[in-house]
């Protein structure tokens, strides 16, 4: 792929969406958002699901102010983490089957630096703890009580993440599921994964989740696993995943998407091929949802999923902040 430089970025093709993808809404776009700062491909923000719109807004503001891709990615997903109405991320996230909210998060910059926390309890912003792991330790991953102890040592305070609504739902689930089996179905998802490209052409990725609802205590999904839940490489692009984490891990999904882009595939095509790999490795694919989104270093974006109920939010200078419905392997009513 031809490198995008400051000299040639003016001639690049405007940000292109998959011809088949449907742009659905831009209701949450900020009409007063300042016009974009020019750069090689950026700024661009893309994130999973409807709650991505609000996350994109926050990330975009950072980029507009001249901030970098990493700060923008962290700032964006913190909005979702702090929203108790989002039942799949941060506070208000569904607990594990024992009624304990455990959070997974990872952050990565396009230069290759990364940090993550797994099964973290009591901390409102796991993404910021993941960033501290990246910046303040010699490690990439911290898990469980060790991650919590690290967060406290770094000055994070504790928060009760189990909201009344979430506790009520969990108790109902428990009463109705004496077998104590976590549900594996297409509804059990909605992680936020967010990718940024800044005006200097640097990429970043952030992914944060309360994980699969009513999972086994201690279960870790794809989201905090670098290469599975997210990946970023300034040479190529970035990708992130949503859906049934076990299926994403089996295919090393986000790394696969980036490597397919490295081979010359567009973001949408790379996501489609990665979904096909997931399907090949998961015979139960009809029962689960997996979706990928991708951002190439030239600013083009794309996504693809197994089932048609997935959408994602894209913010670009020319088109603002809007939802996109990607193609899916299983067609609507299929
Ligand atoms: C996981 N991938 O822990 C996450 C779940 C999720 O959208 O909500 N994804 O498996």
UniProtKB/TrEMBL annotation:
- List GO terms (cellular component aspect): cytoplasm
Which GO MF terms are attached to this record?
hydrolase activity, acting on carbon-nitrogen (but not peptide) bonds, in linear amides
What InterPro entries does the entry give?
Ntn_hydrolases_N, Peptidase_T2, TAT_signal
Sorted keywords for this record are:
Signal
Annotated membrane-spanning segments are none
Any keyword ATP-binding?
A: no
Q: Which domain of life is it from?
A: Bacteria
- In this protein, the active site sits at 191
Signal peptide location: 1-27
The record's listing under Gene3D superfamilies reads:
(Glycosyl)asparaginase
**Marked site (Cleavage) residue numbers:** 190-191
Instruction: Give binding positions for substrate.
Output: 219-222, 242-245
Matching SUPFAM superfamilies? N-terminal nucleophile aminohydrolases (Ntn hydrolases)
Q: Which protein are we looking at? A: Glycosylasparaginase
């Amino acid at each position: 792929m031809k490198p995008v430089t400051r000299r040639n970025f003016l001639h690049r093709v405007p940000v292109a969406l998959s011809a088949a993808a449907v742009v659905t809404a831009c209701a949450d776009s900020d009409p007063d958002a300042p016009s974009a700062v020019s750069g090689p491909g950026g700024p661009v923000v893309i994130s999973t699901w409807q709650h991505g719109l609000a996350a994109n807004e926050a990330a975009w503001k950072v980029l507009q102010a001249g901030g970098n891709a990493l700060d923008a990615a962290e700032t964006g997903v913190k909005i979702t983490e702090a929203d108790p109405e989002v039942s799949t991320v941060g506070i208000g996230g569904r607990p594990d089957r024992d009624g304990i909210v455990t959070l997974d998060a990872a952050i990565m910059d396009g230069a290759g630096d990364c940090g993550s926390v797994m099964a973290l309890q009591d901390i409102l912003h796991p993404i910021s703890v993941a960033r501290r792991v990246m910046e303040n330790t010699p490690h990439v991953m911290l898990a469980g009580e060790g991650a919590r102890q690290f967060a406290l040592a770094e000055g994070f305070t504790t928060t009760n993440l189990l909201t009344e609504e979430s506790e009520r739902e969990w108790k109902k689930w428990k009463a109705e599921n004496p077998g104590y089996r976590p549900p594996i179905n297409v509804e059990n998802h909605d992680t936020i994964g967010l990718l940024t490209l800044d005006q200097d052409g640097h990429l970043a990725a952030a992914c944060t989740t309360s994980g699969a609802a009513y999972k086994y205590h201690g279960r870790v999904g794809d989201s905090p696993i670098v290469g599975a839940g997210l990946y970023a490489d300034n040479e190529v692009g970035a990708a992130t995943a949503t859906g049934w984490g076990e299926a994403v891990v089996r295919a090393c999904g986000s790394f696969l998407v980036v490597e397919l882009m490295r081979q010359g595939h567009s973001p949408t095509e790379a996501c489609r091929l990665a979904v096909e790999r997931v399907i090949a490795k998961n015979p139960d694919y009809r029962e689960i949802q997996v979706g990928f989104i991708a951002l190439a270093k030239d600013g083009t974006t794309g996504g693809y999923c197994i089932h048609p109920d997935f959408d994602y939010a894209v913010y670009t200078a020319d088109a603002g902040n809007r939802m996109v419905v990607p193609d899916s392997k299983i067609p609507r009513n299929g």
